[in-house]
Amino acid sequence: MSTVRFLKARDIAPWLEELSRDFTVLAPAQHGSSIVFREFDPARGIELSQLSTTPAKRALLPPCETLFEYETTKTLEPPYKTSIELKPTLPEGKSVVFGARPCDARAMQIFDRVYNGDQVKDPYYTARRDNATIVTLACSEQEEACFCDRVGGSPVDATGSDILLTPLKAGYVAEALTPKGEKLLKSTSFMKAEGLRQEALNSRNRILEQVPERSSFLDMERNLLSLFGDLGFWDKTAEACLSCGACTYLCPTCYCFNITDETRGESGRRIRTWDNCMSSQFTLEGSGHNPRPSKAHRMRNRIGHKFSYYPQLHDKTLACVGCGRCVSNCPVSFDIRNAVACAIQQAGAIQEQAHD
Amino acid sequence: MTSNPPNVYLPDMATIVEVVQETPAIKTFRVVLNSEERMQAFNFEPGQVGQLSVLGVGESTFVINSPPTRKDYLQFSVMKVGELTSRLHRLKAGDQIGVRAPLGNAFPYESMKGKNIVFIGGGIGMAPLRTLLLFMLDNRADYGDITLLYGARSPRDMAYGYEVEEWLQRKDMRTVLTVDNGTPEWKHKVGLIPNILREINPSPENTVAVTCGPPIMIKFTVQALQELGFDDEQVVTTLEKRMKCGVGICGRCNMGTSYVCKDGPVYTLAQLKQLPNEM
Q: Which pTM value belongs to this model?
């Protein structure tokens, strides 16, 4: 049976300070009007009162990382040969993500299937993943934009977490779910608390009871396919979209990236950076041909990827965890929940017609 | 002790051994991996692609257009269309480039054995077809009648001129050339590829059509093939896409569930019809 401990609220900061000696600790902190995951700094503190503005994905896939460095050497004498040396820069060191929410932790498993799959191992990702411990804080309530319950999760879901924290009065019940989590609970910052296991469970059940009954977005991957030929539908859906990419950058499950080179003199580096599939540049080919020329094409791909393509490739798991960050932060109030609900309705109508 | 899996993003450094100016816009680069061991062990199938790196500029995808039956070097033909290809065109023999290859799938050359083959190539789209054509010519007895229809904008835009002459002379294949705009010296056809294809009128019986070219050409060629009675399973094409990772992660080359960099670039028309139309 897994270890259960109790962490007083006032002991969080000392514990994270202790962890900071051996780990890079990422925790949500206030940054202007936003809450963002950044390296823990006692002076800055942590902010757990609401869902962070940015997801925790940067712990496994940084917004920008070096894949390798290169250095060019030229001989000064004829026949003037050039050689190029490549130096891969694999990430080192261990990290702890503190205060991820169930949606964030679940999203990391969506990354795992792509970056650490049977066919492909992304060495940068796997190095970070192997060395990361995820400490998840169960949500006390669903915020307005949240819909984790509609995509296979819940506010207290432990999927993908090494430790699950359940808030009680004056502190948190910490349950280790993996050996990595067990190790972290050995700290003297924690109090013994086997007796609180049931109380934590009761608390989580009370939170679950508050989740409203509403329609699920699961098992619709084939339905969506029937809309792929209807560009008019996607045109209407994407009408207001500015292609700004806020949704993709703030999405805990969006993992697309770009690869570019940066050169200074004779040396440089190849980097990868988060990318945005809503941008027309994303698929623009050198010849000028663009296979996703309109917002409608790009919206179809974005929603299709999350709710149809990914589930078809990965055991029906949706590539959306319902965190609602794309809903809360869209400058034109695009609501993916409405788009998906409309798609389900429209696809249903098409199927009914087909049966008539 | 198990060794670490290879770093999928790390190119092999290679030396350009020869550059051939094919047309004003197309150059062919013959490259050899710097590691003799890696070059010896390099295996690929016709149709597979590679990412070429000009360090400091970036990477782009090109088909390996030498056949696996000829392994002195790896050959890539590059049409100058953008920043990376322009920089590639400035490279000379002796210069260094990065190669990540082989990537993707291959032409179904095994299941094509015993069948007649019709190649329909437009412009730089001849590059991948050339690989398969040479492979089949090197294994000539395995295949039935071979027809090549190769078109370009004008006579000077036809690549592989040195081989085209040889193909025209060969008795064991039929070669038809066409250009959109002829010149007084041009002795071959003038007209768009789909129209010339209708003229040639190949029989679909026991035949596979393999086509590659600009998306608009593929679209109308497919229409012509359908009129001629070819089924979707009998039409094979290979697609160009903007690719970055080359291993099915970065997300820009997918058509629905299929990633052109790993599940393609070779598809049958039947397979393409199952996917959202994003050619």
A: 0.93
